[in-house]
Amino acid sequence: QVQLVESGGGLVQPGGSLRLSCVASRSFFTTDVIGWYRQAPGKEREWVATITGGGTNYADSVKGRFTISRDNAKNTVYLQMNSLKPEDTAVYYCRLSTAWGQGTQVTVSL
Q1: Is residue 5 a contact partner of residue 22, using CB atoms and an 8 Å limit?
Q2: What pLDDT does residue 30 have?
Q3: Cys-Cys with 75: which of 24, 32, 52, 71 at CB 3.0–4.6 Å?
Q4: Burial code of 66-76, b = ≥16 C-beta within 10 A, e = fewer?
Q5: Residue 99, Cβ neighbours under 10 Å: how many?
Q6: What's the mean per-residue pLDDT of the chain?
Q7: How far apart are the first and last CA of the chain?
Q8: Distance CA 12, CA 23 (A)
Q9: β-strand 10-12 against 104-108: which pairing, if any?
Q10: Does residue 90 have a pLDDT over 90?
Q11: Can you tell me the mean pLDDT for 61-74?
């Protein structure tokens, strides 16, 4: 089972930016589907973005503000988050196949 470790969360003001990282314990395959998800307090976990060998997809709520990318040499997937809003506050998780990371907290507040 691949291990995933997220980092990069923190407290940021509305309109600010953060970059999350997800490091995997193995190299990525071209067929891997790697996703970012988030879970706000009292809400269900929701999909945020996905990257595959063929491209990227985003939830409507983050489209145009978030960018998912991967560095195969570092076994790392990133989530660049710009123009952050209070409603982006959540624990962010990365997922590869059936494996999930432990999550990293993002708080958007004054």
Answers
A1: yes
A2: 86
A3: 24
A4: bbbebeeeebb
A5: 13
A6: 96
A7: 39
A8: 22
A9: parallel
A10: yes
A11: 97
Q: Given this model, what pLDDT does residue 4 score? A: 98
Which residue is listed with tokens 């708080």?
A: 107
Read off the tokens for 64. Answer: 């145009």
3-state secondary structure the chain: CCCEEEECCEEECCCCCEEEEEEECCCCCCCCCEEEEEECCCCCCEEEEEEECCEEEECCCCCCCEEEEEEHHHCEEEEEECCCCHHHCEEEEEEECCEECCCEEEEECC
The tokens describing 46, both together, are: 């929701």
Does the pLDDT value for residue 53 go beyond 90?
no
pLDDT greater than 90 at residue 54? no
